[in-house]
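Lab notebook, bench 4. Still working through the backlog of constructs that have no structural model yet. Next entry is a single chain of 256 residues. Request: give me the C-alpha coordinates for it.
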Amino acid sequence: MKFRKRIIAGNWKMNKTVSEAVELSAAIRHELAECNDVDVVLCPPFTAIAAVAESLEGTTISYGAQNMHWESSGAFTGEISPFMLRGLYCHYVILGHSERRTYFGETDEIVNRKAQAALAATLRPIVCVGETLEQRESGDHIGVVSAQVHASLAGISGADLKKTVIAYEPVWAIGTGLTASPEQAQEMHACIRKEIAVLCSQEAADAVRIQYGGSMKPSNAAELLEQPDIDGGLIGGASLEARSFVELVKIARERN
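Model written out:
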Protein backbone atom coordinates (compact mmCIF):
# COMPACT_ATOMS: atom_id res chain seq x y z
CA MET A 1 0.00 0.00 0.00
CA LYS A 2 1.33 3.43 -0.89
CA PHE A 3 2.18 5.56 2.13
CA ARG A 4 -0.29 8.39 2.73
CA LYS A 5 0.84 11.22 4.99
CA ARG A 6 -1.58 11.89 7.82
CA ILE A 7 -3.45 15.20 7.74
CA ILE A 8 -5.13 16.92 10.68
CA ALA A 9 -7.09 20.04 9.71
CA GLY A 10 -8.85 22.41 12.10
CA ASN A 11 -12.13 23.91 10.92
CA TRP A 12 -12.75 26.87 13.22
CA LYS A 13 -16.15 27.59 11.61
CA MET A 14 -17.67 30.95 12.66
CA ASN A 15 -15.50 31.27 15.75
CA LYS A 16 -12.57 33.44 16.86
CA THR A 17 -12.03 37.15 16.38
CA VAL A 18 -8.73 38.17 14.79
CA SER A 19 -7.01 38.56 18.16
CA GLU A 20 -8.41 35.23 19.39
CA ALA A 21 -7.32 33.51 16.17
CA VAL A 22 -3.78 34.84 16.55
CA GLU A 23 -3.67 33.67 20.15
CA LEU A 24 -4.86 30.17 19.20
CA SER A 25 -2.53 29.84 16.21
CA ALA A 26 0.40 31.04 18.33
CA ALA A 27 -0.32 28.36 20.95
CA ILE A 28 -0.48 25.69 18.24
CA ARG A 29 2.67 27.03 16.61
CA HIS A 30 4.52 26.78 19.92
CA GLU A 31 3.94 23.00 19.96
CA LEU A 32 3.92 22.09 16.27
CA ALA A 33 6.07 24.63 14.42
CA GLU A 34 8.41 21.96 13.07
CA CYS A 35 5.95 19.11 12.60
CA ASN A 36 6.92 17.36 9.36
CA ASP A 37 5.47 13.87 9.64
CA VAL A 38 1.81 15.03 9.76
CA ASP A 39 0.28 17.76 7.63
CA VAL A 40 -1.24 20.30 10.03
CA VAL A 41 -3.80 22.73 8.60
CA LEU A 42 -5.67 25.60 10.27
CA CYS A 43 -8.82 27.00 8.63
CA PRO A 44 -9.88 30.20 10.41
CA PRO A 45 -12.71 32.54 9.34
CA PHE A 46 -11.95 34.75 6.31
CA THR A 47 -11.40 37.77 8.56
CA ALA A 48 -8.51 36.08 10.38
CA ILE A 49 -6.68 34.33 7.52
CA ALA A 50 -4.09 37.07 6.97
CA ALA A 51 -3.33 37.39 10.68
CA VAL A 52 -3.06 33.62 11.12
CA ALA A 53 -0.80 33.42 8.07
CA GLU A 54 1.54 35.96 9.63
CA SER A 55 1.49 34.07 12.91
CA LEU A 56 2.45 30.82 11.17
CA GLU A 57 5.24 32.28 9.02
CA GLY A 58 8.39 30.19 9.19
CA THR A 59 6.60 27.05 10.41
CA THR A 60 5.52 23.86 8.63
CA ILE A 61 1.86 24.51 9.52
CA SER A 62 -0.44 25.20 6.56
CA TYR A 63 -3.61 27.25 6.53
CA GLY A 64 -6.72 27.54 4.41
CA ALA A 65 -10.28 28.83 4.08
CA GLN A 66 -13.63 27.29 4.91
CA ASN A 67 -15.38 28.05 1.62
CA MET A 68 -15.10 29.98 -1.66
CA HIS A 69 -17.00 30.83 -4.85
CA TRP A 70 -16.17 29.11 -8.12
CA GLU A 71 -15.85 32.32 -10.17
CA SER A 72 -12.59 34.27 -10.23
CA SER A 73 -14.36 37.64 -9.90
CA GLY A 74 -17.69 39.33 -10.53
CA ALA A 75 -20.92 40.63 -9.05
CA PHE A 76 -21.25 38.11 -6.23
CA THR A 77 -21.72 40.24 -3.14
CA GLY A 78 -20.21 38.74 -0.03
CA GLU A 79 -18.33 35.97 -1.85
CA ILE A 80 -14.60 35.18 -1.96
CA SER A 81 -12.85 33.91 -5.10
CA PRO A 82 -10.15 31.23 -5.31
CA PHE A 83 -7.64 33.81 -6.53
CA MET A 84 -8.36 36.02 -3.53
CA LEU A 85 -7.41 33.04 -1.37
CA ARG A 86 -4.27 32.45 -3.39
CA GLY A 87 -3.44 36.13 -2.86
CA LEU A 88 -3.33 35.30 0.85
CA TYR A 89 -1.14 32.26 0.03
CA CYS A 90 -3.76 29.82 1.29
CA HIS A 91 -2.90 26.17 0.77
CA TYR A 92 -6.29 24.50 1.34
CA VAL A 93 -10.00 25.24 1.11
CA ILE A 94 -12.86 23.26 2.68
CA LEU A 95 -15.69 22.63 0.21
CA GLY A 96 -19.14 21.10 0.59
CA HIS A 97 -19.18 20.92 4.37
CA SER A 98 -22.48 19.53 5.60
CA GLU A 99 -23.33 22.91 7.12
CA ARG A 100 -22.88 24.54 3.72
CA ARG A 101 -25.03 21.87 2.11
CA THR A 102 -27.73 22.03 4.80
CA TYR A 103 -27.97 25.75 5.58
CA PHE A 104 -26.94 27.26 2.25
CA GLY A 105 -28.31 24.76 -0.23
CA GLU A 106 -25.02 23.68 -1.78
CA THR A 107 -25.40 20.72 -4.12
CA ASP A 108 -22.89 18.18 -5.39
CA GLU A 109 -22.79 20.12 -8.66
CA ILE A 110 -21.88 23.34 -6.85
CA VAL A 111 -19.21 21.52 -4.85
CA ASN A 112 -17.82 20.10 -8.09
CA ARG A 113 -17.57 23.57 -9.68
CA LYS A 114 -15.81 24.85 -6.59
CA ALA A 115 -13.40 21.90 -6.46
CA GLN A 116 -12.41 22.35 -10.08
CA ALA A 117 -11.96 26.10 -9.57
CA ALA A 118 -9.84 25.51 -6.47
CA LEU A 119 -7.54 23.12 -8.30
CA ALA A 120 -7.22 25.55 -11.22
CA ALA A 121 -6.05 28.16 -8.70
CA THR A 122 -3.53 25.68 -7.21
CA LEU A 123 -5.52 25.34 -3.99
CA ARG A 124 -5.95 21.92 -2.42
CA PRO A 125 -9.66 21.23 -1.87
CA ILE A 126 -10.92 19.33 1.16
CA VAL A 127 -14.17 17.94 -0.26
CA CYS A 128 -16.74 16.86 2.33
CA VAL A 129 -19.26 14.05 1.90
CA GLY A 130 -21.53 12.26 4.35
CA GLU A 131 -24.98 10.97 5.15
CA THR A 132 -27.72 12.13 7.51
CA LEU A 133 -29.01 10.01 10.39
CA GLU A 134 -32.19 9.28 8.44
CA GLN A 135 -30.18 8.05 5.46
CA ARG A 136 -28.03 5.83 7.67
CA GLU A 137 -30.99 4.35 9.53
CA SER A 138 -32.75 3.58 6.24
CA GLY A 139 -29.67 1.78 4.93
CA ASP A 140 -29.03 4.32 2.17
CA HIS A 141 -25.74 5.64 3.57
CA ILE A 142 -23.41 3.84 1.17
CA GLY A 143 -25.46 4.80 -1.89
CA VAL A 144 -25.76 8.42 -0.74
CA VAL A 145 -22.05 8.87 -0.10
CA SER A 146 -21.06 7.02 -3.29
CA ALA A 147 -23.28 9.36 -5.32
CA GLN A 148 -21.79 12.40 -3.56
CA VAL A 149 -18.26 11.23 -4.37
CA HIS A 150 -19.03 10.72 -8.04
CA ALA A 151 -20.90 14.00 -8.50
CA SER A 152 -18.61 16.18 -6.37
CA LEU A 153 -15.43 14.92 -8.06
CA ALA A 154 -16.72 14.46 -11.63
CA GLY A 155 -14.27 15.50 -14.33
CA ILE A 156 -11.28 15.83 -12.00
CA SER A 157 -8.14 14.13 -13.31
CA GLY A 158 -6.18 11.50 -11.47
CA ALA A 159 -3.31 13.94 -10.95
CA ASP A 160 -5.67 16.48 -9.39
CA LEU A 161 -7.44 13.84 -7.29
CA LYS A 162 -4.08 13.09 -5.67
CA LYS A 163 -3.97 16.76 -4.58
CA THR A 164 -7.51 16.57 -3.21
CA VAL A 165 -8.43 15.54 0.32
CA ILE A 166 -11.81 13.94 1.01
CA ALA A 167 -13.47 14.35 4.39
CA TYR A 168 -16.09 11.81 5.37
CA GLU A 169 -18.38 13.53 7.84
CA PRO A 170 -21.44 11.65 9.01
CA VAL A 171 -23.89 14.55 9.33
CA TRP A 172 -25.42 12.94 12.42
CA ALA A 173 -22.07 13.24 14.20
CA ILE A 174 -21.37 16.93 13.45
CA GLY A 175 -21.57 18.98 16.63
CA THR A 176 -23.78 16.38 18.33
CA GLY A 177 -21.16 14.65 20.42
CA LEU A 178 -21.99 11.42 18.59
CA THR A 179 -19.22 9.64 16.75
CA ALA A 180 -19.23 6.83 14.23
CA SER A 181 -17.67 3.67 15.62
CA PRO A 182 -14.24 2.87 14.19
CA GLU A 183 -15.88 0.05 12.22
CA GLN A 184 -18.59 2.34 10.80
CA ALA A 185 -16.01 4.97 9.88
CA GLN A 186 -13.68 2.44 8.26
CA GLU A 187 -16.54 0.96 6.22
CA MET A 188 -17.35 4.38 4.76
CA HIS A 189 -13.72 5.37 4.13
CA ALA A 190 -13.15 2.07 2.31
CA CYS A 191 -16.32 2.70 0.31
CA ILE A 192 -15.08 6.16 -0.70
CA ARG A 193 -11.71 4.78 -1.74
CA LYS A 194 -13.44 2.11 -3.82
CA GLU A 195 -15.54 4.77 -5.56
CA ILE A 196 -12.40 6.79 -6.38
CA ALA A 197 -11.02 3.70 -8.08
CA VAL A 198 -14.21 3.39 -10.13
CA LEU A 199 -14.30 7.11 -10.89
CA CYS A 200 -10.64 7.35 -11.87
CA SER A 201 -8.10 4.62 -11.09
CA GLN A 202 -6.79 2.37 -8.35
CA GLU A 203 -3.60 4.44 -8.32
CA ALA A 204 -5.58 7.59 -7.51
CA ALA A 205 -7.65 5.72 -4.92
CA ASP A 206 -4.52 4.48 -3.16
CA ALA A 207 -3.02 7.99 -3.11
CA VAL A 208 -5.98 10.15 -2.07
CA ARG A 209 -6.19 11.02 1.60
CA ILE A 210 -9.53 10.55 3.36
CA GLN A 211 -10.18 12.25 6.70
CA TYR A 212 -12.78 11.47 9.30
CA GLY A 213 -14.85 14.55 10.11
CA GLY A 214 -17.40 13.55 12.72
CA SER A 215 -16.49 14.79 16.20
CA MET A 216 -12.97 13.38 16.36
CA LYS A 217 -11.33 14.25 19.67
CA PRO A 218 -8.38 13.00 21.74
CA SER A 219 -10.52 10.36 23.47
CA ASN A 220 -11.50 8.57 20.23
CA ALA A 221 -8.79 9.56 17.75
CA ALA A 222 -6.46 6.62 18.33
CA GLU A 223 -9.05 3.97 17.48
CA LEU A 224 -10.22 5.91 14.42
CA LEU A 225 -6.70 6.56 13.11
CA GLU A 226 -5.75 2.90 13.47
CA GLN A 227 -8.21 2.04 10.70
CA PRO A 228 -6.43 1.33 7.40
CA ASP A 229 -8.37 3.82 5.27
CA ILE A 230 -8.59 6.74 7.73
CA ASP A 231 -5.77 9.17 6.99
CA GLY A 232 -6.55 11.97 9.41
CA GLY A 233 -9.26 14.20 10.74
CA LEU A 234 -11.20 17.33 9.86
CA ILE A 235 -11.58 18.71 13.36
CA GLY A 236 -14.34 21.05 14.48
CA GLY A 237 -14.88 21.68 18.18
CA ALA A 238 -11.60 20.10 19.30
CA SER A 239 -9.66 22.51 17.06
CA LEU A 240 -10.83 25.56 19.01
CA GLU A 241 -8.61 24.74 21.96
CA ALA A 242 -4.87 24.40 21.41
CA ARG A 243 -4.32 21.57 23.86
CA SER A 244 -6.88 19.22 22.31
CA PHE A 245 -5.82 20.02 18.73
CA VAL A 246 -2.15 19.50 19.49
CA GLU A 247 -2.99 16.21 21.20
CA LEU A 248 -4.81 15.04 18.06
CA VAL A 249 -1.75 15.80 15.95
CA LYS A 250 0.47 13.90 18.40
CA ILE A 251 -1.85 10.90 18.24
CA ALA A 252 -1.67 11.00 14.45
CA ARG A 253 2.13 11.18 14.55
CA GLU A 254 2.27 8.08 16.74
CA ARG A 255 0.30 6.15 14.12
CA ASN A 256 2.41 6.95 11.08
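Notes after review: The chain has a mean pLDDT of 95. The radius of gyration is 17 Å. Flag for follow-up if needed.
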